[in-house]
Amino acid sequence: LKLLHASIVLECEGDLRRNLMQRISRQLGDATVSDLLFSSPNGEFALYNIDIVHELVQLFKLEDEPTDVSKARVARLVDGYLAEAACDPALPSTQFVNLAELISGFPRSSHDGLYRAIDMYLKEHPDLSKSEKRRICR
C-alpha cells in the first residue's frame, strides 16, 4: 500500500499501477483503515480518494478464491473506511453509497460498523435531500 501511495504521488499510471493494485487486492483483508486513506488528487475538494478504495474492492471481488472469512474482513475494513470518509464534507453521497453497495453481499457478524458510517455521514451532511437520505439509508 505504501508503494501505491508513492505511485499516486508520482502520478504513475498504466500496467504497473494496475498490477500493484491487483496484488494489494489479494491481501486487502490485512490492511487497516489508515492504509486506505489516500489523499484526493490536486484540484479536488474531497479529502480522500475513495475511487482508489472502490477499485481495490472491485479487484478483490474479482479474485477467484476470496473466502467468507476474507470477505468479512474486507467488509469490516470498508465499514471503518466509510466511517472515516463520512467526516469529509466534500464526499458525494453517490460515492459513499457506491462503495457501501459494493460490499453489501459480504458476510458479517454485525452491521454496526456500516450503521455507524451512515450515521456519521448523515450528521456531516445535514443539507441532503430526503431522496438522498433514503438512498443512503437503504
Topology:
Elements: H1 2-9, H2 15-26, H3 50-62, H4 68-85, H5 93-102, H6 112-124, H7 130-137
Write up this protein.
With 138 residues, the chain is mainly alpha-helical. The chain has one domain (1-137). It has helices spanning 2-9, 15-26, 50-62, 68-85, 93-102, 112-124, 130-137. α3 (50-62) runs parallel beside α5. It is globular, with a radius of gyration of 15 Å. The model has no long low-confidence stretch (mean pLDDT 92).
Short synopsis of the structure:
It contains seven helices and no strands. It is mainly alpha-helical and 138 residues long.
Q: Major beta sheet, specifics?
A: none
Total count of helical runs of at least 4 residues: 7
State Rg.
15 Å
Overall mean pLDDT: 92
The rounded distance between the terminal residues' Cα atoms is 32 Å
The secondary structure category is mainly alpha
User: Which stretches of 5+ consecutive residues score pLDDT under 50?
Assistant: none
Work out the strand percent: under 5%
The number of domains is 1
Instruction: Give the overall form.
Output: globular
Order of helices and strands: HHHHHHH
How many runs of DSSP E, i.e. beta strands?
0
Helix percent reads 55-70%
Core attributes:
138 residues, mainly alpha, 7 helices, 59% helix, NPH3_dom, NPH3/RPT2-like, NPH3 domain-containing protein, ubl conjugation pathway
